[in-house]
TrEMBL record:
SUPFAM superfamilies: Dihydrofolate reductase-like. The lineage of its organism: Bacteria, Bacillati, Actinomycetota, Actinomycetes, Mycobacteriales. Residues 2-167 form the Bacterial bifunctional deaminase-reductase C-terminal domain. This is Dihydrofolate reductase family protein. It comes from the Bacteria. InterPro entries: DHFR-like_dom_sf, RibDG_C, Riboflavin_Biosynth_HTPR. Transmembrane segments: none annotated. Gene3D superfamilies: Dihydrofolate Reductase, subunit A. It holds the Pfam family RibD_C.
Length: 193
Protein backbone atom coordinates (compact mmCIF):
# COMPACT_ATOMS: atom_id res chain seq x y z
CA UNK A 1 0.00 0.00 0.00
CA UNK A 2 1.24 3.49 -0.84
CA UNK A 3 2.02 5.93 1.95
CA UNK A 4 0.73 9.45 2.44
CA UNK A 5 3.59 11.73 3.48
CA UNK A 6 3.05 15.24 4.81
CA UNK A 7 6.25 16.87 3.53
CA UNK A 8 6.32 20.46 4.72
CA UNK A 9 8.41 23.33 6.08
CA UNK A 10 7.61 24.81 9.49
CA UNK A 11 8.94 27.19 12.09
CA UNK A 12 10.04 25.91 15.48
CA UNK A 13 6.79 27.24 16.91
CA UNK A 14 4.78 25.15 14.46
CA UNK A 15 3.67 27.48 11.67
CA UNK A 16 3.81 26.75 7.93
CA UNK A 17 2.83 30.25 6.74
CA UNK A 18 1.81 33.67 8.00
CA UNK A 19 -1.88 34.29 8.60
CA UNK A 20 -2.22 35.63 5.03
CA UNK A 21 -0.43 32.59 3.56
CA UNK A 22 2.97 34.13 2.91
CA UNK A 23 6.08 31.97 3.21
CA UNK A 24 8.58 34.72 2.43
CA UNK A 25 10.09 34.48 5.91
CA UNK A 26 11.64 31.06 5.12
CA UNK A 27 15.22 31.78 4.05
CA UNK A 28 16.36 30.70 0.61
CA UNK A 29 19.84 29.27 0.27
CA UNK A 30 22.00 27.52 2.77
CA UNK A 31 23.20 23.96 2.66
CA UNK A 32 19.87 22.25 3.40
CA UNK A 33 18.24 23.10 0.06
CA UNK A 34 20.52 21.21 -2.33
CA UNK A 35 20.78 18.21 0.01
CA UNK A 36 17.03 17.81 0.45
CA UNK A 37 16.30 18.58 -3.22
CA UNK A 38 18.70 15.81 -4.24
CA UNK A 39 16.61 13.35 -2.19
CA UNK A 40 13.18 14.72 -3.15
CA UNK A 41 13.46 16.45 -6.54
CA UNK A 42 9.79 15.84 -7.30
CA UNK A 43 8.77 18.27 -4.53
CA UNK A 44 9.99 21.23 -6.57
CA UNK A 45 7.45 22.90 -8.88
CA UNK A 46 7.89 21.93 -12.53
CA UNK A 47 9.06 25.42 -13.53
CA UNK A 48 11.76 25.39 -10.83
CA UNK A 49 12.88 21.91 -11.90
CA UNK A 50 13.21 23.14 -15.48
CA UNK A 51 15.11 26.27 -14.45
CA UNK A 52 17.56 24.18 -12.41
CA UNK A 53 17.92 21.55 -15.13
CA UNK A 54 16.51 18.78 -12.92
CA UNK A 55 15.42 15.89 -15.10
CA UNK A 56 15.52 13.07 -12.53
CA UNK A 57 12.57 10.71 -12.52
CA UNK A 58 10.29 10.82 -9.52
CA UNK A 59 11.97 8.72 -6.83
CA UNK A 60 9.56 9.01 -3.91
CA UNK A 61 6.21 10.46 -4.98
CA UNK A 62 4.09 10.25 -8.12
CA UNK A 63 1.03 12.02 -6.70
CA UNK A 64 0.56 15.34 -4.90
CA UNK A 65 -2.45 16.49 -2.89
CA UNK A 66 -2.91 20.09 -1.83
CA UNK A 67 -5.59 22.27 -0.34
CA UNK A 68 -7.16 25.09 -2.32
CA UNK A 69 -5.18 27.81 -0.53
CA UNK A 70 -1.92 25.98 -1.21
CA UNK A 71 -2.91 25.60 -4.86
CA UNK A 72 -3.91 29.30 -4.99
CA UNK A 73 -0.33 30.17 -4.00
CA UNK A 74 0.81 28.53 -7.25
CA UNK A 75 -1.88 30.37 -9.20
CA UNK A 76 -0.62 33.68 -7.75
CA UNK A 77 2.88 32.81 -8.94
CA UNK A 78 1.67 32.08 -12.45
CA UNK A 79 0.60 28.46 -12.75
CA UNK A 80 -2.56 26.47 -12.12
CA UNK A 81 -0.55 23.31 -12.94
CA UNK A 82 2.40 23.59 -10.51
CA UNK A 83 3.54 19.94 -10.45
CA UNK A 84 3.09 18.76 -14.05
CA UNK A 85 5.49 15.87 -13.35
CA UNK A 86 3.05 14.42 -10.74
CA UNK A 87 -0.63 13.45 -10.62
CA UNK A 88 -2.16 16.49 -8.97
CA UNK A 89 -5.23 16.77 -6.75
CA UNK A 90 -6.72 19.87 -5.15
CA UNK A 91 -9.09 19.43 -2.23
CA UNK A 92 -11.75 22.13 -2.14
CA UNK A 93 -15.37 22.45 -1.13
CA UNK A 94 -15.67 25.81 -2.91
CA UNK A 95 -14.32 25.05 -6.40
CA UNK A 96 -16.94 23.64 -8.75
CA UNK A 97 -14.56 22.41 -11.44
CA UNK A 98 -10.85 21.55 -11.62
CA UNK A 99 -8.60 24.63 -11.78
CA UNK A 100 -6.64 23.15 -14.71
CA UNK A 101 -7.19 20.14 -17.01
CA UNK A 102 -4.09 18.47 -15.48
CA UNK A 103 -5.38 18.90 -11.91
CA UNK A 104 -8.13 16.71 -10.46
CA UNK A 105 -10.58 18.05 -7.90
CA UNK A 106 -11.56 16.31 -4.67
CA UNK A 107 -14.70 18.11 -3.57
CA UNK A 108 -15.88 16.06 -0.64
CA UNK A 109 -14.59 13.42 1.75
CA UNK A 110 -10.85 13.74 1.18
CA UNK A 111 -10.14 10.94 3.70
CA UNK A 112 -11.98 8.38 1.57
CA UNK A 113 -10.40 9.73 -1.63
CA UNK A 114 -6.90 9.44 -0.15
CA UNK A 115 -7.59 5.95 1.21
CA UNK A 116 -8.53 4.91 -2.34
CA UNK A 117 -5.38 6.51 -3.78
CA UNK A 118 -3.26 4.68 -1.21
CA UNK A 119 -4.64 1.34 -2.43
CA UNK A 120 -3.41 2.00 -5.98
CA UNK A 121 0.00 0.85 -7.19
CA UNK A 122 2.74 3.41 -7.53
CA UNK A 123 5.08 5.63 -5.60
CA UNK A 124 4.14 7.58 -2.50
CA UNK A 125 1.58 10.35 -2.16
CA UNK A 126 2.82 13.78 -1.10
CA UNK A 127 0.56 15.98 1.00
CA UNK A 128 1.89 19.39 0.02
CA UNK A 129 -0.32 21.47 2.30
CA UNK A 130 -1.93 23.08 4.01
CA UNK A 131 -2.44 22.70 7.69
CA UNK A 132 -6.22 22.46 7.65
CA UNK A 133 -6.05 19.69 5.06
CA UNK A 134 -3.33 17.92 7.07
CA UNK A 135 -5.62 17.99 10.09
CA UNK A 136 -8.49 16.51 8.06
CA UNK A 137 -6.24 13.83 6.55
CA UNK A 138 -4.44 12.99 9.79
CA UNK A 139 -6.04 9.51 9.97
CA UNK A 140 -4.41 8.68 6.62
CA UNK A 141 -0.99 10.34 7.17
CA UNK A 142 1.69 7.65 7.43
CA UNK A 143 4.75 9.91 7.57
CA UNK A 144 5.64 13.51 8.32
CA UNK A 145 8.80 14.87 6.68
CA UNK A 146 9.46 18.17 8.38
CA UNK A 147 11.92 20.86 7.32
CA UNK A 148 12.19 22.67 10.63
CA UNK A 149 13.53 26.22 10.32
CA UNK A 150 15.09 27.96 13.36
CA UNK A 151 12.49 30.74 13.25
CA UNK A 152 9.81 31.76 15.74
CA UNK A 153 6.92 33.35 13.85
CA UNK A 154 4.60 33.94 16.81
CA UNK A 155 1.40 33.42 14.84
CA UNK A 156 0.29 32.12 11.49
CA UNK A 157 -1.12 29.00 9.91
CA UNK A 158 -0.44 25.99 12.17
CA UNK A 159 1.23 22.84 10.92
CA UNK A 160 -1.96 20.87 11.55
CA UNK A 161 -4.49 23.67 11.31
CA UNK A 162 -6.78 24.67 14.10
CA UNK A 163 -10.07 23.33 15.26
CA UNK A 164 -11.62 21.16 17.92
CA UNK A 165 -9.42 18.96 20.04
CA UNK A 166 -8.47 15.70 18.37
CA UNK A 167 -10.26 12.65 19.82
CA UNK A 168 -6.94 10.84 20.37
CA UNK A 169 -3.31 11.86 20.01
CA UNK A 170 -1.68 10.78 16.74
CA UNK A 171 1.71 9.32 17.66
CA UNK A 172 4.77 9.34 15.42
CA UNK A 173 8.38 8.32 15.95
CA UNK A 174 11.54 9.78 14.44
CA UNK A 175 12.99 7.52 11.75
CA UNK A 176 15.84 9.85 10.67
CA UNK A 177 17.02 13.36 11.37
CA UNK A 178 19.69 15.64 10.03
CA UNK A 179 20.71 19.13 11.12
CA UNK A 180 22.37 21.29 8.49
CA UNK A 181 24.98 24.00 9.02
CA UNK A 182 22.39 26.66 8.19
CA UNK A 183 20.34 25.52 11.22
CA UNK A 184 17.55 23.75 9.36
CA UNK A 185 16.65 20.33 10.74
CA UNK A 186 15.13 17.74 8.44
CA UNK A 187 13.22 15.23 10.55
CA UNK A 188 11.35 12.23 9.19
CA UNK A 189 8.58 10.77 11.34
CA UNK A 190 6.61 7.56 10.87
CA UNK A 191 3.22 6.82 12.40
CA UNK A 192 3.29 4.54 15.40
CA UNK A 193 0.77 1.71 15.36
Amino acid sequence: MRKLTYYVAATIDGFIATEDGSVDFFPVGGDHGPAITAQYPETLPSRVREALGITKRNANFDTVIMGRRTHDFGVRTGTANPYAHLRQYVVSTTLTEPPDPAVALIGADPVTAVAELKREHGLGIWLCGGGELARALLPEIDQVFLKLYPIVLGRGRPLFGSGPQLPDPACFRVITSQVFEDGVAFVKYSRVG
